[in-house]
């Protein structure tokens, strides 16, 4: 575990470490898989490469490699381009002085453990509440973000969403991972 990242967000990494003590590493990526193989696979998905790069740069992939199953909501490059979020990810959040903001933004896209897509609210890695609304066979995540496709890699489920998920800072609810 990277000690410098631990100092940045200890409660989140403690949860990931606690889950790792219960779940075998092979549960996340499969018996023959590694974090590097998952990262390579993620980067090979050309339609989500911008977010995949930000995810890798945040350091969360290597920190969560032992966390068991998880769900990640990832916007496509096209969606990021159309709403201006690509600039935010590539030119602002990837700057070294904005590392904590990058981690917070990426953490809002990750749900540890098994996630019920029919749940009304789930806890993100950063203990934020993410609302989910399933109606007429489609799912909205956060504020009007449609799930357009689902990919799976080992026990990682990736829901492709129509835009970067932006946390509602006025939402005072606190959701805890695992409860």
Counted up, domains total 1
Indicate the CATH architecture. Roll
- Rounded to the nearest angstrom, the distance between the terminal CA atoms is 24 Å
Under CATH, the topology can be stated as FAS1 domain
Output the strand order for the largest sheet.
2-1-7-6-5-4-3
Total beta strand runs: 7
Structural class: alpha+beta
Q: How would you state the average pLDDT, rounded?
A: 74
**Which bin fits the share of residues in helices?**
40-55%
The general outline is globular
For the biggest sheet, the summary is:
7 strands, mixed
Strand content: 15-25%
Note poorly predicted spans: 1-27
What is the level 1 CATH name? Answer: Mainly Beta
Q: Compute the gyration radius: what is it?
A: 15 Å
The succession of helices and strands, N to C, reads: HHHHHHEHHHEEEEEE
Q: What's the total helix number? A: 9
């Amino acid at each position: 575990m990277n000690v410098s990242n631990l100092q940045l967000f200890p409660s989140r990494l403690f949860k990931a470490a606690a889950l790792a003590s219960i779940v075998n590493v092979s549960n996340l990526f499969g018996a023959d898989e590694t974090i590097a193989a998952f990262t390579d696979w993620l980067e090979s998905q050309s339609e989500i490469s911008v977010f995949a790069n930000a995810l890798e740069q945040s350091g969360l992939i290597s920190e969560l490699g032992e966390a068991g199953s998880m769900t990640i909501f990832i916007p496509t490059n096209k969606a990021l381009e159309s709403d201006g979020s690509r600039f935010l990810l590539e030119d602002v959040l990837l700057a070294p002085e904005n590392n904590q903001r990058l981690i917070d933004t990426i953490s809002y896209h990750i749900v540890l453990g098994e996630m019920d897509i029919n749940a009304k609210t789930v806890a993100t890695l950063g203990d934020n509440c993410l609302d989910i609304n399933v109606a007429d066979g489609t799912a909205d995540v956060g504020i009007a973000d449609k799930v357009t496709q689902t990919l799976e890699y080992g026990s990682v489920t990736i829901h492709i969403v129509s835009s970067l998920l932006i946390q509602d800072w006025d939402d005072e609810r606190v959701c805890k991972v695992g409860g």
